[in-house]
Fold:
Amino acid sequence: MPEAVFVARSLTKIYRNADVEVQALRGVDMTLYEGEVSVLLGPSGSGKSTLLNILGGLDSATSGDVRFRDHDLTGASERELTRYRRDHVGFVFQFYNLIPSLTAWENVALVTDIAPDPMTPSQALALVGLAPREKHFPAQLSGGEQQRVAIARAIAKRPDVLLCDEPIGALDSATGRVVLEAIERINAELGTTTAIITHNAPIRAMAHRVFTFHDGRIASQSLNAERKPAREIVW
Amino acid sequence: MRALDRKSWRDALRLWTQIAAVALVMASGVMTIVLAVGAYRSLLETRETYYDRYGFAHVFASAMRAPNRLRDDVLAIPGVIAAELRVVENVIVSMPGMAEPASGRAVSIPDFSDPSVNRLYLRSGRMPDPARAGEIALDERFAKAHRLGVGDTFTAIMNGRERGLTVAAIVLSPEYIYALGPGDIMPDDRRFAVFFMPRSALEGLFDMGGAFNDIAIRLLRGASEQDVIDNVDRLLDPYGGAGAHPRIEQLSHAFLDSELSQLYAMARVMPPVFLFVSAFLVNMILSRLVALEREQIGLLKACGYTSLEVALHYARLVIVIVAIGLIVGSVVGDWLGQATTRLYSQYFSFPFLVFRRSGDLFAIAAIVSLASAFAGAFKAIRDAARLAPAVAMQPPAPARYRSLIGGGAARRFRAPPLLVMAFRHFVRRPLRSALTTLGLSMSVALLVTAMASLDEIDEMIDIVFSRTERADATLVFAGAKPPSVLDDARRLPGVLAVEGYRSLLVTLRNGARQKRAAITGRPRGADLSLMLDRNLKPLEAPDHGVALTERLARHLDVGVGDTVEIEVRAGKRRTVDVPVTAINKSFLGLSADMALSEIDRLAGDGPRVTSASLLIDATQAGRLYEKVKKTPSIAAITLQGISLVRFHETIAENITTMTVIYTALAVVIGFGVVYNSMRIQFSERARELASLRVLGFTRLEVAGVLFAEIALIVVLAQPVGWSVGALFAWSVSKGFESDLFTIPFVMHPPTFAYASIVAVASAAATGLIVKRRVDRLDMVRGLKTRE
Structure:
């Protein structure tokens, strides 16, 4: 049994906005394991992104416990969370969130500059197959290329975990597959614990572990006895 | 209220800090209009009313001693409606409780009637009775400074004899609205007394029976001033006429004029600066708002709102800004205008002050601020109106960046990516960046301009008091005296050194160009009153020929090596050609200089002196003053040291007020520009800043991206502000130039430093305000923000 990386217990999250209360998480228990790819499935509003944001230190839970290895994320201060993200977490978002004023190489360098033990930006870009596009600005890249730059940026610091929120949500399936292959390769070559949020059910085939969300809770959890390579997945 | 109106109000409330920042800049513009134009009009109107009611003269002239029978000839000159033939004499006044002697000017008034020209305003008492010896009408300022009232007495040395004078009336004269004692550069009410005496009494004291030495002439509207001056000169020539001059060369009038031109310059320079900056800020805010609300505009249009309705919707926000600016600016401007007008009573003696609130002024302010705000808003409003709904619902094309100095430069030099981001954002919108820089530079320029005037005053003091007039005191003799008076002066108590000078009235000519001026004869090796060359180095009076001041040389169109014709206007009148052997620098008056021996030869009446510069032992000053008050041959005494102290006192208070006001205005501009620029940057870049936070950058590092760009703007704004400020200061100093005085154009490094420190400090403080927002940045929400 691999070691647990994330352990979440009875997590709840309530958003209070003036006089409206929205309960995004209603008691989530979940464990993610070292080196595994986990896919989190569920309709929009089911709480996947909220959970991912809490795991990534972008947000904090209203109640419950969440631990990253020996770090307690529940009571962490703003400063500690910044440190945590900087040292351990790589993020990939649906809309890439690249800095438009920096080239692909520079977008990656943004992270390698502040990470303790990074690979070079060129190595990271090579891992996602973008070595020839290093000098291009985001506006000069296709959507798939931009997302791969975002992945390169996320993994360049050799993060312990890679959190991907709808990484192929804005891409066509051919491009999406290239992106998934990149994620798959990172996981295989670097052993980075990876969590992928998606509402594309077929993608579950590439995961070690699959969670389905419904209405702020985990509705089911399963292990794939056999994983399918990303390039074979069709949706 | 319609839904769209509600949106306007909520937008205004939501953007209130940005709106307030722009409105404040606009208010400053309105304030300067109301203040400068209001004060200008008040001062001008007060002066014109006063001149008109009290018959202020148009032409002035003096002579040695001219017969009263010339009156008919003067009145016969075409265009002359009234002429007052007067006796005007300088005297020494001795006041109990004041060690140093004061200067006085005694002016004759008709025995039994009001003067026909330069009538007096009677503040209290009754006009002096010629039958009662020593009755005078005393100028209000001296009376106030010494708390003299009707019935009080003091003594004056008149024509060498001590006379008791009794105050019968306290008066004001349009001729002495600004009264400057001999040798002073700032009015000193304690040390300069102007008083008016019945003609019969004064001519008796000065042996001027049947004669006059001063004339004031009033002209018909439209009469030719120059023709009258020429005629008067012709009439007075045989009697030692010193040359008639028009009103604009009259001291009091000229100083008022320079004050007016200062206000005029302020009204011309300042409001456009503020209106330009506020127009630019309106443009920034509105462009951003329209960009942010692109989909909303599309939606409004899709729902059936017309382009005009959309345009009006955004125009309403502009009107809110202008309304706030107008109200705040008008109230503050009106208040400051009244305060300024009252301040004039410190320098200018008016019997009344006209401060009128003119409606048209506020209307002008409203029109120009509306016009400038809409000039700034035009493009954004037009873009909003023209946006097609289908296009508006689509996100705008992504921002395009490029690397400026070759793709790999940033990488090769390992420039920190956060800096690269700031720099590329700066150059992506060169026009906006340039305008932001220019806007901020105005804050620097404004302070540089204001502070430069202090440098100029310092320079003036330095040049006048430490480099040229180095004497502690100057004795002015009653007429030209033989050099033996210098031995008398040397024997006065406490006198350490004495130098004799001679002043001679002449007309200088070069072809058709001519100018009346006084030539000063300087002793060889003069040390107490120096002449300076163009580089402000001491210049010895030439052995042969004449040295002219720059302005006089320019006026006569001559240079070193040329010859000027000099006509001596006193004593043995003659005309000689003299070579110009040096050009010197002087900031007061139009003067020419020669060696003392040369001027004696020119005058042809043997060695003479008209004044003596003294170096005195300060501990003996009291005894010296006592002696001077009793020495008949001394007509006046100038005390440079006391003048300087007085000058500093008067100016210090105003400098503080001025510095505070201009600093506040500079801070308003700095805040307006930096705040809006950073807020808009922040809004445009919320998404990428949130991304940086997600990537693990600290709040400080993320705020650093915003700071880096604004820092770049702040740095670039400094040299621009210095240059623009220097240009403004230069034009202001040029605007002051007249035959009476020239302002040296100088600027010292601390001026630039102060302006920059204020600009940088206000930018930094503003940055900290914005940083609080960056700290509150919600990462999750920021990631969803539109760029």
The longest strand of chain A covers residues 4-17. The CA atoms of residues 116 and 190 of chain A lie 16 Å apart. The beta strands of chain A are 4-17, 20-33, 37-41, 63-68, 71-72, 89-92, 161-165, 193-198, 209-214, 217-223. The helical segments of chain A are 48-55, 78-88, 104-112, 121-127, 143-155, 173-190.
